[in-house]
Amino acid sequence: MFSVNGGTVTALQDISLTVRQGEFVSIIGSSGCGKSTLLRIIAGLETDYQGTAQFEGEPIRGTGLDRGVVFQEHRLFPWLTVRQNVAFGLGNSTSESDWESVDEHIDLVGLNGFEHAYPHQLSGGMAQRASIARALANRPRALLLDEPFGALDALTKIQMQEEVLRIWQKEKATMLLVTHDIDEAVFLGDQVIIMSNRPGTIKKIIPVDLPRPRDRGSYEFTQLRSAIYAEFFRQEDKPFAYAI
Q: What is the value of pTM for the model shown?
């Protein structure tokens, strides 16, 4: 579904990545390795690079309603209510069916009763829910998540991870998640992409062959998480291997 290929640039080097439709892919890497830049290229927010980026076989030349983006900060407009913020994702369209879609997605993220609340009246987790609803209001075929839970406390982060997983299973959209959290990457992803330090390259792609729902405390989960941690920090001349 996604294909990114390029030559040497400032942040990324020799990146080649394909994501299948409906897949949930986690991307991990150290700060400054270019993982957010990669996501911005796919979103169409970054255009100054060498190489090609495609979405569903067509070149990406800018932003589009077929790709929703959720950032680490919720980026809600403080002067708009939750309902108005979610509707903003629809552009200038305000038909009855559009408002039905807005209300449907507010319900999807569990914000019923807060439709007329303003961002300052929401908790951090609730604001991120509203941000996700806004990104999904146009029913994009892909949702790009750039460290969306990084500013949340540990318990809220776990709740939001489970919420995003539920939404993904319901909406059937392709999802790309950039994160520093290895536990989060394994819990959510069908595969985990490990990026090297800048200039960022894809160091390893590791499939997550664990059944859903996933048990973070299971032997298989902890073994895979530990193996990814070791791969993330290993020397280049050491082989990667893990056994379950």
A: 0.87
